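user: can you give me the structure for this one chain? tokens are fine.
assistant: on it. calling the predictor now.
[tool input]
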Amino acid sequence: MPHRPYRLRVNDWSALEDLYLRFAEDPGWPQEARARRAWEHLVQTWQVGAWLGDAQVAVADHGGEPVGFAAVTLALDEPQLGRAMEVGTFVAPAHRGRGANDALKIWSAQAAVRLGAAWLTACIPVHNARARRAFVKVFPGAEVYEHPESAGPWREYLKRRAFAAGEPVRLYVVHLSNFSHLR
């Protein structure tokens, strides 16, 4: 039986809260946002970013139930590279492999373009093979960096993100020129 398409609700903070209450203990939930205070701080950061025009969050809805999210936030904005947005996602276990990830990732590229970005990035922990496969499935041409010394112009950004994550990460970088028609 084909899976019904996902509806994406942008900056729906109530649906995002419902998602947290249901899935914060899931192993796939962002590690740094499991504690209540950390989650509330993260959401406040996204809300301010949305107000400033530097962030958007989409909640994937299936049958009136939130089943995943994608947060697109400002990664960097500098003359050498231009504007880059970072995406982070979560999809409920029952909806993995059923199209929610694809819908959220494609939305994230579209949102990044609308927010004026030339690049979409993702910092994925080295040990998270499922998340790496999911990202590359949607963005097969992504550049991948694991070591700052080989990351060229992304060196400092990769160092900061690995430090913030507290674990080794791989930086995935997608040039959004292929998505410019989606403005």
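assistant: here you go. Strands lie at 7-10, 55-62, 65-78, 82-91, 119-125, 143-145, 169-175. DSSP finds five helices and seven strands in the chain.
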